[in-house]
TrEMBL record:
Name of the gene: LOC108823732
Keyword Nucleus belongs to the record: yes
Protein localization: Nucleus
Low complexity compositional bias, start-end: 160-177
Spans annotated as Disordered: 1-28, 147-192
Keywords: Developmental protein, DNA-binding, Nucleus, Transcription, Transcription regulation
Pfam family, one: ALOG_dom
GO MF, one annotated term: DNA binding
Domain ALOG: start-end pairs: 25-152
One of the GO biological process terms: mRNA transcription
Bias (Polar residues): 1-26, 178-192
Name used for this protein in its record: Protein LIGHT-DEPENDENT SHORT HYPOCOTYLS 1
Family the UniProt entry places it in: Belongs to the plant homeotic and developmental regulators ALOG protein family.
GO CC terms: nucleus
Length: 192
């Protein structure tokens, strides 16, 4: 009752700001991504409506976003192709990283359905988009020398301290070998 009487005494020029319940970081990012995509459709020549949007339009959008990327992706003829940490700068372009594109598509796919789009017509889940993401992932893995394989579970450090001195520590055994190199070659004290 007090709240109502205080509001009645306010002048009409003051506004009451109602704060909506705070959304998660994911929800905020999804909303921003959705607004960006809708703006892209409005600016498209000719302008596109959401129901007429296809997987091909989503691919155009992803290629458009590449110009704002921050990840150096080496060309196949670049001297640093396949090196994860190149020793010098090169003229190769900055692109969107595969992980960013994959997360973006996931958010847009969910936003499409939340905004009334039928799941069976979702352009973000089209085969063309899935194939494009796979190609980007594979090429970027080769260009940067980074593997996108599943990560192994971490070994408990207490176990490595109780091993006898004749065996190499488990942590060194589980390091990923370089191409053509055995796992045991990483450990200098091992006999093969």
């Amino acid at each position: 009752m007090e709240l109502i009487s205080h509001q009645a005494n306010r002048s009409p020029n003051t506004s009451i700001q109602s704060t909506p319940p705070s959304s998660s970081r994911y929800e905020n990012q999804k909303r921003r991504d959705w607004n960006t995509f809708c703006q892209y459709l409005r600016n498209h020549r000719p302008p596109l409506s959401l129901p007429s949007c296809s997987g091909a339009h989503v691919l155009e959008f992803l290629r458009y976003l590449d110009q704002f990327g921050k990840t150096k992706i080496h060309h196949q003829n670049c001297a640093f192709f396949g090196l994860p940490n190149p020793p010098a700068p090169c003229p190769c372009p900055l692109r969107q990283a595969w992980g960013s594109l994959d997360a973006l598509i996931g958010r847009l796919r969910a936003a499409y359905e939340e905004n009334g789009g039928p799941p069976e017509a979702n352009p973000f889940g089209s085969r063309a988009v899935r194939l494009y993401l796979r190609e980007v992932r594979d090429f970027q893995a080769k260009a940067r020398g980074v593997s996108y394989d599943k990560k192994r579970k971490r070994v408990n450090r207490q176990k490595t301290q109780t091993l006898p001195q004749t065996q190499p520590p488990l942590l060194l055994q589980q390091q990923q070998p370089h191409q053509g190199q055995s796992v045991m070659a990483n450990y200098s004290g091992a006999t093969v």
